[in-house]
C-alpha cells in the first residue's frame, strides 16, 4: 500500500518555486530564475546572493525556504540522513509547506497550488527514503490533492505540465516494472504514457523554472524505460550545455553516450567525474571507466579493477545513491562468464539486481539467473 501511495511523489519529486506575488513582480521573477540557474550550475555563491535578495523582498513567502532547501539538496548531493545539512533540509521544507498552506488558504491561486505541491512532494520523497511510513502517507495524500488541481489548469500555466506529464507516464509505466503493485494501482486515476511524454515535452520547451527537470526526466524515461538512447540524448545535451558545472547532468550524459558507444566523446566527462572529491561522482566515474575498458578497449583486467574500485568507493554511500554499482556488478558478472566462472557470475548478478533501479540490468541478470 505504501508503494502505491508514494510512487509518484517519491520517484518524481519536483521542485518549482513561484508565487502570484512574484509572478507579478519582474524583479522577483528574475531573481528566482537567476537563483534556479545558479543552483543547477552548482554556483552556490551566486545562488545564495539571489536567495538573500528574495528573502529581503519576500520575507514571509515559501519561495525562500524552498530555495534554501533546493540549494542544500544540490550542494550535498547525494543527500542522505548522514549528510551534514540533512536536518536543515527537512526543516526548510517543513517551513515551506507551512507557508505554502497559509498562502493557499489566503488566495487559492495556481501559483499558491505550486508552492504547496512542491513542498509536500519533496517531504514525501524525504520521508519515503527514510521509510517513515505515517509521514510519507500524510505528505503524499496532500500532494496528490494539489496535483489533481494542476490537471485542471495546465493549459493556462505550462509549468504544471511537468507534474501532469510525470504522473501520466509513471501511472502507467511504473507497474510494468513493478508488477506487485498492480492490484492496488486502481486507487489512482488512469494515466497515459504517450500523453505524459507530450506533456513533458511541453514543459521542456514552454516552461521556465521547471524546464531543466522536464529535460532530465525525458532523458531518463527514453534511456532507462523506453530503451531509446538516441531520443534521450538531445535532452541531456541541453542540460550539459546549459549547466556545464553540474556533475549530475554530466553523469547522466556519460551514461547516455556509453549506451550509444560514443566512448571518445564521453572520455573528458568521465575523467572529470573520477577526479571529483565527492565519492558519489567519483564512484560513477570509476564505473564508467570500467565500462570503457570492458566494452571499448576490451581490457577485462582493468575493467575489473575499476569495477571493484567503484564498489569500494561506494561503501559509505546510501543505498539510494548506488544505482551505478549495479552496472559494476553486472560488468563483473559478464567478465566472470567469459572466464568460465559461473559461481562468480551468479553472485555478481544477484548483487547487481539488489542495487538496480531500472530495467536493463534487472533483465540482463534475470536472463542469466533464470528469473
Q: List SSEs in N-to-C order.
A: HHHHHHHHHHHHHHHHHHH
Proportion of strand residues: under 5%
Please describe the biggest sheet, giving its number of strands, its sense, and whether it closes into a barrel. none
Say how many strands there are.
Answer: 0
Structural class label: mainly alpha
Taken together, the total number of domains comes to 2
Query: How many helical stretches?
Result: 19
Q: Low-confidence stretches at least 5 residues in length (pLDDT < 50)? A: 1-5, 14-19
User: Rounded to an integer, what's the Rg over CA atoms?
Assistant: 21 Å
Tell me about this structure:
The chain is mostly helical and 371 residues long. The chain has 2 domains: 2-230, no CATH class; 253-369, Serine Threonine Protein Phosphatase 5, Tetratricopeptide repeat (Alpha Horseshoe), CATH 1.25.40. It has 19 helices and no strands. It has helices at 2-11, 20-23, 26-40, 44-57, 63-75, 86-107, 110-129, 133-153, 160-177, 193-206, 211-225, 229-242, 247-259, 263-274, 279-297, 300-313, 323-338, 342-355, 359-369. Helix 1 packs across helix 8 and helix 15 (279-297) packs antiparallel against helix 16 (300-313). The protein is globular and about 70 Å long.
Amino acid at each position: 500500500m505504501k508503494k502505491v501511495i508514494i510512487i509518484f511523489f517519491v520517484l518524481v519529486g519536483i521542485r518549482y518555486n513561484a508565487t502570484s506575488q512574484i509572478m507579478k513582480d519582474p524583479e522577483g521573477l528574475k531573481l528566482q530564475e537567476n537563483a534556479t540557474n545558479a543552483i543547477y550550475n552548482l554556483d552556490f555563491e551566486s545562488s545564495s546572493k539571489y536567495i538573500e535578495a528574495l528573502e529581503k523582498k519576500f520575507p514571509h513567502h515559501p519561495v525562500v525556504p524552498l530555495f534554501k532547501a533546493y540549494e542544500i539538496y544540490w550542494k550535498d548531493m547525494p543527500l542522505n540522513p548522514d549528510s551534514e545539512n540533512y536536518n536543515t533540509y527537512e526543516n526548510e521544507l517543513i517551513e515551506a509547506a507551512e507557508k505554502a498552506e497559509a498562502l493557499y488558504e489566503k488566495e487559492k491561486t495556481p501559483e499558491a497550488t505550486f508552492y504547496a505541491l512542491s513542498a509536500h512532494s519533496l517531504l514525501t520523497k524525504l520521508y519515503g527514503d527514510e521509510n517513515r511510513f505515517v509521514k510519507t502517507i500524510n505528505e503524499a495524500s496532500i500532494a496528490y490533492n494539489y496535483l489533481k488541481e494542476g490537471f485542471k489548469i495546465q493549459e493556462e500555466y505550462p509549468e504544471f505540465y511537468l507534474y501532469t506529464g510525470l504522473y501520466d507516464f509513471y501511472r502507467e509505466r511504473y507497474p510494468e516494472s513493478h508488477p506487485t503493485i498492480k492490484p492496488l494501482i486502481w486507487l489512482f486515476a488512469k494515466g497515459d504514457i504517450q500523453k505524459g511524454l507530450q506533456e513533458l515535452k511541453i514543459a521542456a520547451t514552454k516552461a521556465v523554472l521547471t524546464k531543466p527537470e522536464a529535460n532530465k526526466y525525458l532523458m531518463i524515461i527514453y534511456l532507462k524505460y523506453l530503451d531509446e538512447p538516441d531520443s534521450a540524448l538531445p535532452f541531456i545535451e541541453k542540460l550539459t550545455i546549459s549547466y556545464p558545472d553540474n556533475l549530475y547532468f554530466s553523469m547522466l550524459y556519460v551514461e547516455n553516450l556509453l549506451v550509444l558507444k560514443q566512448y571518445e566523446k564521453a572520455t573528458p566527462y568521465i575523467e572529470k567525474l573520477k577526479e571529483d572529491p565527492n565519492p558519489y561522482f567519483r564512484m560513477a566515474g570509476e564505473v564508467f571507466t570500467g565500462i570503457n575498458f570492458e566494452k571499448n578497449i576490451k581490457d577485462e583486467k582493468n575493467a575489473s579493477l575499476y569495477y571493484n574500485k567503484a564498489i569500494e568507493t561506494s561503501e559509505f554511500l546510501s543505498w539510494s545513491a548506488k544505482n551505478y554499482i549495479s552496472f559494476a556488478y553486472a560488468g563483473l558478472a559478464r567478465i566472470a562468464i567469459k572466464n568460465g566462472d559461473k559461481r562468480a557470475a551468479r553472485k555478481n548478478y544477484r548483487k547487481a539486481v539488489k542495487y538496480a533501479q531500472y530495467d536493463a540490468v534487472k533483465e540482463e541478470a534475470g536472463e542469466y539467473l533464470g528469473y
